[in-house]
């Protein structure tokens, strides 16, 4: 992904500054808001990437959109604008959150389901996460109706696929490999 290395460098600098000022939690909340707002708004992403729009207009727009953020976050906006890197703001925010979670030993478990998680199902998945990793994790639910049922769990580089779609695919493969069934 373009700008990923630069975003990581900026995020490391921001988290270092946040540690010094004892503001890591506040900035993590700001970065979550920034990342969510930009990723959900195509117009804002296009606006930030546009080379035609002047940096002052971008800065004023960001200050208006994110009125209640910490002054350190405002300085991040200014720094990225000065260095002509404002288009990677969302990526910087995402990298900051990953560094924050790593610093606080918080794992994020991405759970793909065909429907929104219920509290009972979330508890079962939390048990599976504990079984696979030995730790608890924040659960992020992704809805994908194509998996039919069950769930796909990703924690770090560990993946557990308990979806109906995967089970049907495995069954199909077994039938194809079975000499008796494939002749029918």
From TrEMBL:
Task: Specify the species.
Answer: Salinimicrobium gaetbulicola
Record membrane topology: Peripheral membrane protein
Q: Which domain of life is it from?
A: Bacteria
Per its UniProt record, what HAMAP family does this chain match? ATP_synth_delta_bact (MF_01416)
Recorded hits in SUPFAM superfamilies, A to Z, give: N-terminal domain of the delta subunit of the F1F0-ATP synthase
Q: Which UniProt keywords apply?
A: ATP synthesis, Cell membrane, CF(1), Hydrogen ion transport, Ion transport, Membrane, Transport
Q: What does this protein do?
A: F(1)F(0) ATP synthase produces ATP from ADP in the presence of a proton or sodium gradient. F-type ATPases consist of two structural domains, F(1) containing the extramembraneous catalytic core and F(0) containing the membrane proton channel, linked together by a central stalk and a peripheral stalk. During catalysis, ATP synthesis in the catalytic domain of F(1) is coupled via a rotary mechanism of the central stalk subunits to proton translocation.
The record's family statement is: Belongs to the ATPase delta chain family.
Supply the Pfam families for this chain: OSCP (PF00213)
State where the protein is found.
Cell membrane; Membrane
InterPro entries, alphabetically? ATP_synth_OSCP/delta_N_sf (IPR026015), ATPase_OSCP/dsu (IPR000711)
Q: What is this protein called?
A: ATP synthase subunit delta
Q: What is its main location?
A: membrane
